[in-house]
Amino acid sequence: MKILFIGAGSMAHALLRGAIDAQVFKKEEVYVTNRSNQQRLTELIEHYGVNGISCRLPSDEEFEVIILAMKPKDFHEAAPVIKSFLSPGTLIISVLAGISIDHVSETLTFKGAIARAMPNTSAALGKSATAVTYNEFLSEQHKEWTLKFFRSVGLSVEVAEEQMDLITAVSGSGPAYIYYVAELLERAAVDLGMQKELAKALIIQTISGASKMLEDSGLEAGILRRNVTSPGGTTEAGINVLEESGVSDAFSKCIDSAKARSEEMGRELTFNHLK
After folding, report:
1. Which tens digits make up the pLDDT trace of 7-35?
2. Is the pLDDT score of 43 beyond 90?
3. CATH class name, domain 3-160
4. Following DSSP, what letter does each residue of 117-167 receive, concatenated?
């Protein structure tokens, strides 16, 4: 099998690391290319022992699987070269936020198997949450391979494509929200007199433990929260301030804004392509 990653950014790095560690494919089967940042491409090739290939000119190479992992804005510029790598039996896997399967198909004039996925960068640790959807041209073997690929880097679920923009907002961008919460907790602790390294260690373990409780207890997040919120206690005092500050509404607006931006990106890229 020959597999081509187009793009050498953080998502390509995460998926490569996770899938190679899980032995979904052999590093000798993998080729990587990108439009710019030769240093980043060289780092991936040297670190993982995969093959590099030029994307400057059309190629006579054909690949069984092509993974589109470039920035969405670079997709149309890369399309002529991508076309040169395709054969009728190629499976395209797109992790491009906001870009629909139909748009990938139309841009590449490709009437074959296309899967659209939204992983997150926790794939590098085998902890991604990935949603996958397909067009009608995927065989059962294609579907099995695609799910195996994404399950090697974490949880993988099949969804309707109409849900992808919302999923992008929730789990695609989700790690950044958690990092933001950790950043704010650490800042508050340090501002109130705690040593930075101590604050960081305690917050990391607290988030890890809470995540494990959510995963293993089978209880809803709201129940777990109430279980540690004693009436008149310290947790209640803190939660009350969060509620008074509109944190719940802010999270709703956060997800809605990220979803809207995913939809907007898709419209912008389609419009710019048609101009």
Report:
1. 888 888 888 888 888 888 888 899 998 87
2. no
3. alpha beta
4. EE--GGGGGT-EEEEEEE-TT--HHHHHHHHHHHHTTEEEEE--GGGHHHH
What is residue 3's DSSP assignment?
E
Domain spans of the chain, in order of start: 3-160, 172-261
DSSP 209-265: HHHHHHHHH---HHHHHHHT--TTSHHHHHHHHHHHTTHHHHHHHHHHHHHHHHHHH
Phi, psi dihedral angles at 7 (to 5 degrees)? 120, 140
**CATH level 3 topology of 172-261:** ProC C-terminal domain-like fold (1.10.3730)
Which residues partner with 113 through β-bridges? 91
Cross-strand partners of 4? 31, 66
pTM of the model: 0.85
Instruction: Residue 15: name the closest of 39, 52, 44, 54 by CA.
Output: 44
